[in-house]
């Protein structure tokens, strides 16, 4: 009964309510003999509905996340940790600024590798917008709170996107004389990240983390609920594929 209530309530909240309204409008147009627009609207409504389901979104995200396997025993002489969003003025133990959920997950993975290999961590990510946090600076602060020595953290705080992450990180890596970087980022982002580093002539060991979907997909009818989360997964997939295409062919 609990699952059924969740399923039903998803159609009275966004984005489900929009799907219901669009479907009702398509039926109305059909009954008014405005059949071609009704069919077009019906197709658009169906596509939008599927794009909003966790079932479809999880399949798309999973296809990105499975591009690279996480190595059980990664080896290298430096860890490159990519940022992924931060707030500027939110409270944090008497200070200001917090990392978003994805870069926090990435940071914990980098910390685990650091504790195992005892190699430096290069944190890459600038302040993307005027009201967003300085990602590398905040990451350094959090790593130091977790016990990483300041001398083991290299800050690259100028990059505003993945392309610049790769460019500016390469300059630092060459300057320090590192030869075997381990790249840590979200699994859905890894394909594009590796591509950008390859463009810079850097062969990296990919260490994907921050997984958003199970590898073994078990179907439940509630995965057919229209949700903003499902739509967000579709958006992430399309953005990653589009940006990878641009990187491959135009940069």
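Q: What amino acid sequence fits the structure above?
A:
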């Amino acid at each position: 009964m609990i699952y059924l209530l969740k399923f039903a309530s998803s159609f009275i909240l966004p984005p489900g309510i929009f799907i219901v309204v669009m479907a009702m409008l398509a039926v109305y147009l059909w009954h008014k003999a405005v059949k071609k627009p009704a069919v077009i609207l019906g197709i658009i409504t169906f596509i939008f509905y599927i794009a909003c389901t966790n079932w479809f979104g999880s399949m798309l995200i999973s296809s990105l996340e499975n591009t690279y396997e996480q190595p059980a025993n990664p080896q290298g002489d430096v860890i490159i940790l990519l940022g992924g969003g931060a707030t500027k003025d939110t409270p944090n133990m008497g200070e200001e600024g917090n990392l978003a959920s994805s870069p926090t997950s990435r940071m914990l993975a980098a910390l685990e590798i650091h504790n195992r290999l005892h190699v430096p961590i290069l944190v890459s990510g600038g302040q993307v917008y005027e009201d967003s946090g300085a990602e590398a600076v905040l990451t350094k602060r959090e790593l130091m709170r977790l016990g990483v020595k300041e001398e083991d953290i290299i800050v690259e705080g100028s990059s505003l996107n993945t392309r610049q992450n790769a460019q500016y990180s390469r300059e630092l890596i060459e300057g320090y004389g590192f030869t075997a970087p381990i790249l840590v980022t979200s699994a859905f982002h890894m394909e594009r990240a590796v591509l950008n580093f390859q463009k810079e002539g850097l062969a990296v060991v990919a260490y994907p983390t921050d997984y958003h979907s199970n590898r073994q997909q078990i179907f439940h009818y509630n995965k057919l609920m229209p949700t903003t989360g499902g739509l967000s997964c579709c958006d992430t997939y399309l953005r990653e594929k589009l940006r990878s295409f641009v990187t491959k062919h135009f940069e």
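Q: And what stands out in the fold?
A: The two ends are 53 Å apart (CA to CA).
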